[in-house]
Amino acid sequence: MFVFTALSKKDEGDHISPDMRGRHKKMSDLMKEERERIRAHIRSFPTVESHYCRKGSERLYLGASLNLATMYRLYCETRHKEQAVTIASSTVYCELFRTEFNLGFHNPSKDRCDFCVSFENLSLDEKDKQKHLYNDHHRNKARVQEKKIKDKEESRTNKKKLSVCFDLQEVLMTPHSNASVLIYKRKLNTFHLSLYDLGSGQAVCNVWHEGIAARGSNKIGSCVFDYLKCAHERGVEFVSLYSDSCGGQNRNKYFLTMLWYASTKFGFSQIEHNFFIKGHNKNENDSVHATIERVSKHLDIYTTPHWASAISAAKRTKPHYIVKELDEHCSFDFKQVAGHLKNFDLDVDRQKVQWLNIKSMKITKENPNIVHILYDYDARYHQLNLALRIRKVHQKVLRSIKTNMMIYSLFVKLKLFPKFTINFSTS
Ligand SMILES: [Zn+2]
Fold first, then answer.
1. Cys-Cys with 84: which of 79, 280, 309, 422 at CB 3.0–4.6 Å?
2. Which PANTHER family does the record associate with it (predicted)?
3. pTM of the predicted protein model
4. How far is ligand 1, taken at its centre, from the CA of residue 137, in Å?
């Protein structure tokens, strides 16, 4: 028997392959190694974080051209190249992807509202308790959309009124290609902020890459400021801006500083910034972004200027998209300007500014230092004075004043204080 085995191992030359008795790996070890290879393969794809759920979410997103079937096909291709004898099934690959990774293929839909989803899953009792919050949420959602429709109508007939909606598109990967050799490569993130004139239907597309700037409030503010400058030059006096309520980009003190600066510099009669309710951000920019996605799907794009060309050619009908390719000189430092303003924290009633609840902000020509803030589209305006430092009265001081007042009134009641009389007679 041994002789037959030895002979069967003899290859075409005189070499005999080594004796493998006792050296075969156990099936469980093989599976362990295979699972490790799958993990490494999943980790080899470049990911991006989402624009919509930065806060509190660790979820990362894979390129839009990928899906689980494609990833598994690529895995099999790699293993075939390695001349692997056994390859894990797609079930094992998918199970590992779903149970061990927090990865998604598309940025979360704008249609999905976390608040609405969690409300739908509450018990009847809990629903009853939170009904008023749910109603407020949907009332404000409807109000901002009604306001946008009204502004849109006014802008169509009044040239002094500009209503504009701005939004960041999902990150555009560069290079952008379906060639599998490029799928695993680290991509350069290209950013695209579109500003859509609701009156004329004209979109202006600002394009830059991560080597020039991130997509923070300074860059977004700079793009909007440049847009407002052009609007001022053509005689616009009333501005109504609409955007999502992303705290890192639009709803913060630096973006407000930009609005204050634009208002002061260009003398707009009124500049207003309205925020869509989180999770209900559908707007006109979505169609701009969808057109760009559709047109670029089968294009090979290798640089940011290629993206700019693809975007400018994306819309076949008029008005065509106006594309602005930004360089490092196109940024203002609104963070530095904010340092010259004195107050972003307390309103004139000494109430803390609730940045995360702001639904709308307004600055008028009469006093650009006063920001009129709405926390609810049907409630009153709160006023924030940017030029006046307001100090918060410490609770300890307030308590001590109250105690002293109580002691004083008690002493007066008990007639322990002598009566003071002041004689003003001039005898
Ligand atoms: Zn909702």
1. 79
2. DNA-DIRECTED RNA POLYMERASES I, II, AND III SUBUNIT RPABC2, PTHR10773:SF19
3. 0.72
4. 7
